[in-house]
Give the backbone structure.
Amino acid sequence: MNELFRPISALRGVGEKRAKAYARLGIQTPYDLLFHIPRSYLDFRNPEPVLSAPLDTPCVVEGCITRKLPEQRIRKGLSVFKATATDGESDFTVVFYNNFYAFDALKVGETYRFAGKLTGTLLRREIHSPQYLRADCPVLMKPVYPLTNGLTNPMVQANMRQALELLRREPFDGLPSGIRRQYDLCTLPEALGVVHQPASEPILQEAKRRLAFDALLQLQLGMLMLRNRSRAQTAYTMDPDTDLTPFYASLPFAPTNAQKRSIAEICGDLCRTVPANRLLQGDVGSGKTAVAAAACYFTCKNGFQSALMAPTEILATQHYHTLEGFLSPLGIRVGLLTGSLPAKEKRRIRTALQAGELDVLVGTHALIQKDTVFPALGLVITDEQHRFGVGQRAALAQKGGTPHKLVMSATPIPRTLALIVYGDLDISVLDELPVGRLPIRTYAVTGKLRQRAYGFVRSRMDAGEQAYIVCPMIEEGESDLLAVTSYAEQLRAGAFAAYRVGLLHGKMKPAEKEQVMASFKAGELDLLVCTTVVEVGVDVPNATVMLIENSERFGLSQLHQLRGRVGRGSKQSHCILITDSTSEESRERLRVLSSTTDGFRIAEEDLKLRGPGDFFGSAQHGLPPVHLAELAEDMELVRQTQQAARDILEADPQLRDPVNHALRADVVRLYARNGENGLN
Ligand SMILES: Nc1ncnc2c1ncn2[C@@H]1O[C@H](COP(=O)(O)OP(=O)(O)OP(=O)(O)O)[C@@H](O)[C@H]1O
């Protein structure tokens, strides 16, 4: 067997503990390790003269070691090692704390480059705990790896050298050479060698392109294979002449054009034999639930059942009430299945469902997926909210024969990324808000203005409206943050003593949460102090003010979602972002948020600020393990990989040809890592 595919513990220095640390990063073999791509590089190429290098800012200087001083024991457990060096013009001191090995490796008379921050006076510059390498080292860029507890950068570097050595001994490239030539890509060993030991920027870009190509290609191949498989099956077909007029007539509002268009697209899907696989994407408050209700109506009128799955109980309950409101006057029977229902009630619901006495079942994912039998499941709607990856979506395909599938997603995502992540789906976009919505006014202020902000919140509540105050944390102990519980107490006793204040956080029991949400919705509470449990989907149109504490702690898209809890009716809404942070990045985020309410623009800015991995806030998004920040804008590469995937599968639909074996293994591995084992 190729040694690259042995357990990672085959590498020198990898004991049980380190192997576990690697496993946490999804690395089981030296081959996996090779795809652990550096987060960034320490660039030693352009040293600055010590005299003019900036102080307290990361920089690189060069120096010849002139003297090594004896160890200084400052106190028990703290030893300081110092060496003096010169860059020809000025002298400086290199200082290490407790790091004998780094100090010991420096040799008097040799010249090194040091990366770190310079401190000290004009006469005596010092550089503390620098990273360094010999000035004549052929590779002057040191990779910086994403780490986890139990791993350090030097450990990963050392293991990586060995893994690269194995690859050199037994060169391996899973990409068929025809594809490699067609798209003018370098070989895998070349790409990996350069990415882990780069010599120059242009070659590095080539190497990254190759790795991104592979990652995107594998993603697309897997999706196409799953899709082809479900296409080979047939779904229940419905009647295109099904009359939606009664549904439209009973809506309490006029649907937007975007809603009508999406409903037509979805119902069009339902009339085909190929199981539908559609994403309904809409900005916060764009009215996705009404579209879902229309699809359920259509399905029911054709004699089939629908399931709507939400990520939390609060949302499931809310969707249940909304759908029930839309559909039960039309004679459609809607049921709710959540974990906090008494066992007897759950049984009753399941029995009714099985007997065909329920047309629509709303619930949490786990409950609907487990032991729930639908005699005629025509449509599965998943309110995904970006919580779930490729794997879960695919797993649904196995449920109840082959129902049509509709995924609802609230965060608008840039088109390139949508193609990458949802390459397997057709997309309907709600790009229009209901008429009469006023853009939310957003202000970023410091804590000094908190009392004034409270005053403003009170004035809105005096006018009969409701408000949210959001804090990021729930555990005590984070000293810089007031825990939400004590914060709520403080508000109840102080600024909001005259108002009805509710509290909602993630550690409460589902039934309690639901009760608080129900009272807030019914207008029995004026103010809801909460954590981000309100982030997704919660819909209380009378709530018009949101005040967010420590707003710098949230990502842009998350703030957009949070803010979207207000501005859901016709009244003017306001969002006050409180922050005392001085960090440029968080200020930039708040600036973007104050200047626009367009979810697509915000998503694009967020992607630029954070890169696609963090953008979804989940390891399960199925995105390739390459830092694709700039590649997300590279439509060309996405198109090329789509084309390549189609060509490969046209010739070999299941990748059974020996030239595609390695590629197949890569695809299966990628999907298995994301929880989808159906490709095996
Ligand atoms: N065409 C419309 N005209 C007026 N109000 C509408 C229209 N469509 C939906 N609404 C109302 O707008 C609010 C938001 O709708 P809904 O909860 O479906 O939004 P959403 O798209 O799920 O948003 P989010 O992702 O933020 O939860 C609801 O109160 C709903 O009743």
Remarks:
- Residues 253, 255-256, 259, 282, 284-290, 410, 434, 537, 539, 541, 564, 568 surround adenosine-5'-triphosphate (CB under 6 Å).
- Residues 474-481, 613-622 have pLDDT under 50 and may be disordered.
- The chain has four domains: 2-41+144-226, 45-136, 245-430, 441-614.
- The chain is about 40% helix and 20% strand.
